UniProtKB/TrEMBL annotation:
Superkingdom of the organism of origin: Bacteria
Pfam families for this protein: Phage_sheath_1 (PF04984), Phage_sheath_1C (PF17482)
Occurrences of domain Tail sheath protein subtilisin-like (ranges): 221-387
Domain Tail sheath protein C-terminal: start-end pairs: 390-490
Family: Belongs to the myoviridae tail sheath protein family.
Protein name: Phage tail sheath protein
Length: 504
């Protein structure tokens, strides 16, 4: 602080103290699907009519989208004699210098203007011109007029789109492909944010799979397919944390999606591929060993209003919606299991289940870390296991708790990076994390948690290098997967039987 002379008052802000930590948003779905009949964009347009001369030109932007609304057209009177019709372009402004006769009167007709526009390469790259009316009438000078009405394609290929109105997105997706069905399944469970990536439907399954997996365009650097989910946070400020590719997720697709999930700290819900039996589903699950994925078998069934018939309904799509619903209504510490699913009326394969008998189809599947479907008081998912070989992350909510805490605590401390490191802000960081843990414990999201400063690891050499280690631990809330009720028969309640008879 400068010590120069001052006769008066100075205020120096000292911004110390703990910062509140805000939990990251978790109910954001990342969805990949196909929609061959998806709504197209609308090209901007403009008609310059001169009714008295029954003459006009209609302009249509060369490409659909809102960019066309920035195109402007004007007709210039050269204010000189014997001038030729000429077209020039500056940015998105099209300037038409009209022709004049030997007396300086404008002679250009609508037909001539349209021909000149279409014949000028720079102008033709922006618009297509067509005469309206007879086209023979002479036009007049007019100032800049904007093309209007251009609308972007609502679901462009290989581009993440943040959907806040799922019903509108269903309409834009059309009836064909997987996207509309998946969105319908999601909205039946919850209204939530969905980051949609539409991919092209290939000529065969292999091409479709390649489109789903995607990559990076070598010319533009644009991420395609499921890789486009990685661009969502920078575009929209939200990170997809619940991922799925309903109806298109074989082992190859799921493996690639798990890699995306690990980068985003997101959780993947996947089907058991083409498995027809519980044994095949259990073997299919062996393809994966990640904590970020849950395998589900079989599918639901229900009535499809498009085909007007009962058909299989993707269990993965409903898992995405139900997961978002639970995050919003209960929390990320509750697993998907044993919650009624909306909009279904059956199960695609017979699954024997009994609440008290472990030797059932459902018990077999759950013991092999496959979540299955049951019908008891409504159709439900049954199973909470991930594909992790590490018991620390055996349950879905254990993985999601780890993901949410990591992002919540890390992102809450952006303010601390590059601050002068002295004891006061370090203490503030520790106290802020502990305050967040106390909140999460009170709300039931954690059983316990604590942060601390470890003097041993934070040696003078480490601190001098600009590094700081803050340790914290936590205990997630285990799901009550196996309730053991111990029933005993006894005759001790018969000991005072005679006395109780007498008393009666």
């Amino acid at each position: 602080m400068a010590q120069d002379y001052h006769h008066g008052v100075r205020v120096v802000e000292i911004n110390e103290g703990t910062r509140p930590i805000r939990t990251v948003s978790t109910a954001v779905i990342g969805l990949i699907g196909t929609a061959p009949e998806a709504a197209a964009g609308v090209a901007a347009a403009l008609t310059l009519d001169f009714a008295a001369a029954n003459s006009g030109v209609s302009y249509t932007a060369a490409s659909a989208g809102t960019d066309g609304n920035a195109i402007r057209v004007r007709y210039l009177d050269p204010a000189d004699v014997s001038q030729a019709l000429a077209v020039s372009v500056s940015g998105k402004d099209i300037n038409v210098r009209l022709a004049t006769d030997i007396e300086g009167a404008i002679t250009s007709t609508a037909a001539e203007v349209a021909t000149a526009i279409n014949g000028a390469p720079e102008a033709a790259a922006l618009v297509t011109a067509a005469e309206s009316g007879t086209g023979a009438g002479v036009v007049s000078a007019i100032g800049y007029q904007n093309l209007t009405g251009g609308q972007d394609e609502p679901l462009p290929l290989d581009t993440p789109v943040l959907v806040t109105d799922i019903y509108a997105a269903i309409g834009n997706a059309g009836e064909e492909g997987t996207l509309a069905r998946s969105l319908d399944a999601i909205v039946k469970q919850a209204k939530t944010l969905v980051v949609v990536v539409r991919v092209a439907e290939g000529v065969d399954d292999a091409e479709t799979k390649a489109n789903v997996i995607g990559g990076v365009d070598p010319l533009t650097g644009k991420k395609t397919g499921m890789q486009a989910l990685l661009a969502a946070e920078q575009r929209f400020g939200v990170k997809p944390r619940i991922l799925g590719v309903p109806e298109l997720d074989d082992a190859d697709v799921t493996s690639e999606l798990i890699a995306i999930g690990q980068k985003l700290r997101a959780f993947v819900y996947a089907s058991a591929g083409d498995s027809k039996t519980k044994e095949e589903a259990a073997m299919y699950r062996e393809n994966f060993g990640a904590r970020e994925v849950m395998v589900i078998w079989p599918d639901f069934t229900g009535f499809d209003t498009v085909t007007q018939s009962t058909r299989n309904h993707s269990a993965v799509a409903r898992a995405l919606g139900l997961r978002a619903k639970l995050d919003n209504e209960i929390g990320w510490h509750k697993t998907l299991s044993n919650i009624a699913v909306n909009g279904v009326s059956g199960i695609s394969q017979d699954v024997f289940w009994d609440l008290q008998d472990p030797a059932t189809d459902a018990g077999y599947l759950n013991s092999h870390e496959v979540t299955t479907l049951i019908n008891r008081g409504g159709y439900r998912f049954w199973g909470s296991r991930t594909c992790s070989i590490d018991p620390l992350f055996a349950f879905e909510n254990y993985t999601r708790t780890a993901q949410v805490l990591a992002d919540t605590i890390a992102e809450a401390h952006l303010w601390a990076v590059d601050k002068p490191m002295h004891p006061s802000p370090v203490k503030d960081i520790v106290e802020g994390i502990n305050a967040k843990f106390r909140e999460l414990i009170r709300l039931g999201y954690l059983l316990g948690g604590e942060a601390w400063f470890d003097e041993e690891i934070n040696s003078p050499e480490v601190l001098k290098a600009g590094k700081l280690y803050i340790d914290y631990d936590y205990t997630p809330v285990p799901p009550l997967e196996n309730l053991m009720l111990q029933q005993r028969i006894t005759d001790r309640y018969l000991v005072d039987f005679a006395d109780r008879v007498a008393a009666a």
